[in-house]
Amino acid sequence: HLGAPPKFNLVKVHNGVNTPASGTQDPFVSSASHGGAAQPPMFGSQIDTTHLLATGQISFPAATGDTLHFDNLPRDDAEPPVPNNTTGQVHQPNSNNGGHAANVPNMPAPAQQAGLSQPQLQALPLAENSLAIVPYQIPYQAPYQAPYQGTFQGGYQLEEAVATYGDVVPDYIRAQRSTQLNRLTGGPTGRPTANEAMHQVNFPFVESPPRASHFMVRGVIKIGNIPFVTNRSEIIAILGRNSRMLNDTDEPVHIIMERVTGKTTDAYVEFHTLEDASKAVEKHHQNLDRGRVTRIGQRPVEIELSSQAALMKDLFPNARGVFWAGLHPHILPNNDEEPWDNFKGFVSNEEMTMLVKHVEVPHRSPFSKECPQRPFECLISTLTKFPWQMKNHVTIQQRHAMYKATCDLLRILVGNIRDKRDEVNLTHRLVKRVVAAAMRCEGFSITQKDDIAFIVDMSEMEQRSFGQPRFAESWRHLYVLVPKNGVPLDVIEWYIAVIREETTRHLEMQSFQEKCQTCTIGDATDGYFGFFWRELNLRVGPDFDRMTLATLAMHEYQTLEAIIRRALTPALGH
């Protein structure tokens, strides 16, 4: 839905003249031909710098060799740079990701023998600027030209690297990069050391941080004896807009619904402070003293001061073996004598399945039939208040059940609005609330959020506002880690390019049988991260479903660190 990612474009060679391929160039790639005027690329990391350069709003920066200035970082300046004796690149079999071809550094070609003509070579994508991307060269002493150094599948030929490792990055490319990427690759070798790349200031992959509201003490009131057809606007109306409840984006109103039966019980409202909640309850009691009973419809309701712990206990009634201390659950030790009270999860698959059934077959759910928006509001409260910070106790299967229910409910809601089945209760505002809760959910992966964005046809810029990276559909091999907030897009893509190149290079060092088997599997998946999935080597089947998010996050961290350190550490003997 976002199109094939234009990761790195091909450069075609005709009669020895480098001609940029159609489309835009990549800011990572520098031209091999230094004759004539340099033609700046068409797009940068996040800002259209080309337009700023053309209009004179910014000037071309002077060439610089500034390096990262982190005094507390161990440096490897004394290490000699890895020499570049690469003459070409080997095309890895295409992974099915919209035309992207992964590449690995090629072996040095032997001297041209008399009577043999060298094939005309052409660059492949991704590794054209080896000063930042190609960290390793593979030693090779074969006495003949490798048979796969000619034309490859797809009709492309091989040529030597466009920029040799260690070349100075042209100024017009540095002008399009972010400041952070220029600092990261500003050294004499065009790449940072492994320790600099793995420093917490630079490393762009993190676990989703919990919301700031999880660390704040909020006031909560409970409204009891409400009609089962009560809607959100009626709750807000009886409290008044001046009651200092949380902002609408924080979803302050939680109408509790039994997920299995669909029955509405009580409602909770969150306030900024405990004092604000106390004032709302005091106002209710003052009205009672004056003979003014607070009603919703024709039914008088009860308003009392409550707590976050009571709210969480009612939102997740099937979470056994849990003691709620505010928003933070404490898992109690297992009791072998009463195994039915042991902790098995905050929500069950059955709860999520029944939540969808209330919408799919409303005639079998009398409560939901009268209040069709209730299951969607229940989903919003579940996603918003779920204790995602407890990653040690949330499994992949439990997260998938919530993700599947979210997608199913969104599809039904979008279809109902399109067919105008209930224009009073099922509105576009309700869709936006569900989408916002899902896109801000700390537990969903980048790919899962991309699926949600696809269902509602979300624009690319709106996805950026929710922290989604470019080519989010290609992040399918990272299940927990997400981009760090505030990191420029080109820094994230530089790290991914290093991972892609290094995993492809490492595969080339394996046996021929293993390469063939891996490439066969790779053809059926996305190649944006190269063969990262091979080194991640996750379990499959029920063992994978039972993995916790914390275990999976640790495994992803370790694999990423191993790949990046291997890529940015000079090879022995160089």
UniProtKB/TrEMBL annotation:
Start and end residues of each stretch annotated as Disordered: 16-44, 65-103
Database matches in CDD domains: RRM_hnRNPH_ESRPs_RBM12_like
Composition bias, Basic and acidic residues: 68-78
Composition skew (Polar residues), residue ranges: 16-33, 84-98
Domain of life per record: Eukaryota
Single GO MF descriptor: RNA binding
Domain called RRM: residue spans: 220-297
The protein's name: RRM domain-containing protein
Organism: Colletotrichum phormii
Phylogenetic placement of the source organism: Eukaryota, Fungi, Dikarya, Ascomycota, Pezizomycotina
